[in-house]
Design goal:
The complex is a heterodimer of chains A (482) and B (308). Chain A has 17 helices and no strands. Chain A is mostly helical. Chain B has 15 helices and ten strands. In chain B, a hairpin with a 3-residue loop joins strand 5 and strand 6. The chains are: A mainly alpha (482), B alpha/beta (308).
Chain lengths: 482, 308
């Protein structure tokens, strides 16, 4: 079920009413309702893959209990690796089987050895990368004794399948989300109103910004061979806002929806395009994934301790794995590697923690900060070309198409006037984000506006803009494919 | 919780008012570039305004023509008039069965036709009907049928255009509008026809395509059929000629023919009439006046056959 669909607009109020009016007196029933609602939410897309979630839930629940029962190091390790093998096994099969097969065949043929193997027609279960990492965080934390395993199967099932963040995150840590299922939730007006605001802003980002940008990004990337440099640059620019609006919009709707049910999910985006360097960008972009890799991969590898060679190795590993997590394509690996290249100079010169706070300036940033933001943004736009391209050669031909004299020609593509309208919408969006950048999300500070008339007028205006500028086809979120 | 529920309802109410006012202001003040989901275009390309104004004064016709631009550019009332027949062409831009149903509800009683000839261009059966709906909303007076049509199509563009259209109808803002008789090479001829300046089609590459029937359109079509049956008005379905270049790109023409044959007398003139693409068409799917003359004579001869 898509957040931007009529189905969800009907589903959410029904679950909300059942949750707060029917099951509100019994925690077990509330959690059970969440499990049922989550399975309906997921099954709406393809019920067959519910078995995968259910199997992962059983395996990790049992592993958690097993880890609690034994103190034998060997047995504990075996249990942990069982969980990792099952979860990564599913992920590997559904997401990476064909990629590895094709690349092995290609690699062997380079050495003159012809091997055969037929690729499978595999449907990628929506959100598999997200819920796999979420359940893994549970078993790893229990193994490291950071978290008590749960014996409450319903709570654990609700944690694994919690519908607001099931298919595209934020990838929650068991330490944050699981304990919230143990406590009785009491309806909190402020929290629910805040949730509604965040849902509204998320919808705006998705259906107005991302979907309108997608129209042009798709058109330009799909016909890149025939277009001039300035058009291709504009295409990359549109994709940059498409992916941000799409993914951060989903996260906002997820976090806001969770708040309606009394849950606090972690922040996933913190105005990344106002970052002054790549290190700051990665502290602000897809925070739940970056911190997952930091905690469960980077730090166990040694992190930024040790020699420069170790730092370089660890940085490349984490960025490349992060890229590969997004999809079974070399484009994502190059995208990760490029980010590692951007990041390394900052790490080695110990300048990676220069910009910990959001950029200052009441109305505008300082001249230097503006320059740094522009530079970081431009570097990011460049990496998104690899992220969006069909394959590596497409990415290189796209970049080649930008870097020639036609970069200074007037952009030429279908619907240029409509594109101008989208650019104006982006400008409005960037301004709103800029003035709200110190908050959890851009319009969170509306809660502090005392006059109800002003607050409500802004809500109405945003809803009006959504209705006036939404794309009329329901388009799935990009991150569903990851 | 009470406060929350109350505020949700109050905000919803406020939003409805805000929305209606916003649509009116956007429609009045904003250039069309910025009205993405509001598409109110009075006096459009297909002369719908003039045709829908004229139809209100027409009564008791021999033949009523229905359909998309293939109808209003394909059936020339002058040819029928010369043969002693009183006809009216109620084709409108991209008219799908949903709009045909609406127009019949509005005008069938007055027109009281002895026969209906309905152009069934396959694309209109696979269309969502939005383009035609906003055309009719902007160029005709709105009533309950418009509301029913909007709910049936269920598209934000149709709802927004209808809100703005109702506002303009209530204030009679279109009363003094005069549509130019000729525009973009096409002139309106009394009786609902649009005659295009003579030009010729030059062949272009067209991608292969499958006709996908939208269930909503088929349902509307079936309702038309049933209502005409009840009123005992004979219905002839025709697939007007399009260029062979365009016709051959559809991969399932035969199944479309079978479907249409199951509803009424049906002629596919792409099989029955061999017209040269570069002589008798001005674009890939519209006849020029030379083609129109041949096509209408063919229809007249078929009518004679039916009479026999």
């Amino acid at each position: 079920m898509l957040f931007n669909s009529l189905d969800f607009a009907v589903f959410l109020p029904i679950v909300f009413i059942l949750y707060w009016f029917v099951t509100n007196k019994n925690l077990k029933f509330q959690n059970l309702l969440i499990v049922v609602a989550s399975y309906v939410f997921y099954g709406w897309w393809d019920w067959r893959f519910l078995s995968l979630i259910f199997f992962s839930t059983i395996v990790d629940y049992s592993v958690g209990l097993g880890l609690n029962k034994t103190s034998s190091k060997r047995k504990r390790k075996l249990l942990l690796w069982t969980s990792i093998a099952v979860n990564i096994g599913f992920l590997g099969f559904f997401k990476y089987y064909n990629f590895f097969l094709e690349n092995f065949i290609a690699a062997f043929s380079l050495f003159g050895k012809e091997i055969s193997g037929s690729s499978l027609n595999i449907i990628l279960p929506v959100g598999i990368s997200f819920y796999t990492f979420q359940t893994l965080s549970y078993t790893i934390d229990v193994y490291k004794k950071k978290l008590e395993p749960t014996s409450n199967f319903i709570s654990f099932s609700a944690f694994v399948s919690f519908f607001p963040q099931l298919v595209a995150g934020p990838i929650e840590r068991a330490t944050n989300l699981l304990p919230q299922f143990y406590k009785r939730r009491v309806f909190d007006y402020t929290k629910a109103a805040d949730g509604m605001r965040q849902i509204l802003w998320g919808l705006f980002k998705k259906v107005v910004i991302a979907d309108n940008c997608a129209e042009f990004a798709d058109q330009i990337f799909n016909n890149s061979a025939d277009l001039n440099g300035s058009t291709l640059l504009l295409g990359a620019f549109f994709f940059t806002f498409q992916i941000y609006g799409d993914f951060s919009g989903y996260s906002d709707i997820a976090i806001g929806t969770a708040r309606l049910f009394g849950f606090n999910l972690m922040k996933n985006f913190a105005f990344p395009y106002f970052s002054r360097d790549i290190a700051e960008f990665w502290r602000r972009w897809h925070i739940s994934l970056s911190t997952w890799f930091r905690d469960y991969l980077y730090i166990p590898l040694g992190g930024s301790r040790g020699s420069n060679a170790m730092k370089v190795r660890n940085t490349f590993i984490i960025f490349i794995v992060s890229g590969f997590w997004h999809g079974a394509n070399w484009t994502f690996i190059v995208w990760g590697a490029l980010n590692a290249l951007y990041f390394l100079p900052l790490l080695i010169t110990k300048n990676n923690r220069n910009n910990m706070e959001v950029v200052s300036g009441k109305y505008l940033p300082g001249f230097k900060e503006f320059g740094l933001i522009t530079l970081t943004f431009s570097l990011t736009v460049f990496t998104w070309i690899f992220f969006r391209a069909e394959n590596i050669s497409h990415a290189f031909s796209y970049i080649g198409g930008i870097l020639n004299e036609s970069l200074f020609d007037i952009p030429e593509f279908e619907g240029r006037l409509k594109a101008l309208r989208t650019i104006i919408l982006i400008a409005f969006f960037v301004l709103a984000e800029w003035f709200g950048r110190k908050e959890k999300f851009a319009i969170a500070n509306l809660a502090n506006v005392n006059k109800k008339a002003i607050r409500w007028s802004v809500y109405c205006l945003i809803m009006f803009l959504i209705a006036m500028y939404m794309q009329t086809e329901e388009t799935p979120f990009i991150y569903f494919q990851f | 919780m009470k406060k929350y529920i109350r505020n949700i309802f109050l905000l919803t109410g406020s939003f409805i008012v805000f929305y209606v006012v916003g649509i009116i202001l956007f429609g009045e003040l904003t250039p069309s570039l910025f009205t993405q989901n509001l598409n109110y275009r009075i006096g459009t390309y297909g002369h719908s305004f003039t045709r829908l104004k004229e139809v209100k004064d027409v009564k008791d016709v021999d033949i009523l023509f229905l359909g998309s631009s293939h109808a209003y550019r394909g059936f020339d009332p002058g040819i029928y008039k010369r043969n002693g027949l009183k006809v009216f062409n109620l084709g409108t831009s991209s008219q799908t069965p949903i709009q045909t149903h609406l127009l019949l509800n509005r005008y069938l009683k007055n027109l009281n036709p002895k026969l209906i000839i309905y152009d069934v261009y396959p694309e209109t059966f696979s269309s969502d009907g939005v383009e035609s709906a906003v055309d009719i909303i902007a160029n005709d007076k709105n009533d309950m049928n418009s509301l029913k049509m909007a709910f049936n199509i269920n598209h934000i563009k149709v709802y927004n255009t209808l809100i703005y259209g109702i506002y303009r109808d209530l204030l009679n803002l279109n009363e003094n509008y005069k549509e130019p008789e000729c525009k973009r090479g096409g002139c309106y001829i009394s009786g609902g026809f649009v005659q295009e300046k003579l030009s010729f089609y030059s062949k272009k590459e067209l991608k292969e395509k499958k006709i996908e029937i939208d269930p909503k359109q088929l349902k509307a079509f079936e309702n038309i059929r049933k209502e005409l049956d009840k009123k005992r008005i004979p219905l002839i379905l025709v697939y007007s000629p399009i260029t062979s270049n365009d016709y051959q790109r559809y991969t399932n023409n035969d199944s479309f023919d079978s479907l249409m044959q199951s509803y009424s007398t049906y002629y596919n003139f792409n099989k029955n009439l061999n017209l040269n693409d570069s002589i008798y068409f001005y674009d890939s799917n519209h006849l020029n006046q030379l083609g129109v003359n041949i096509y209408n004579k063919e229809i007249l001869s078929r009518l004679e056959l039916i009479k026999d």
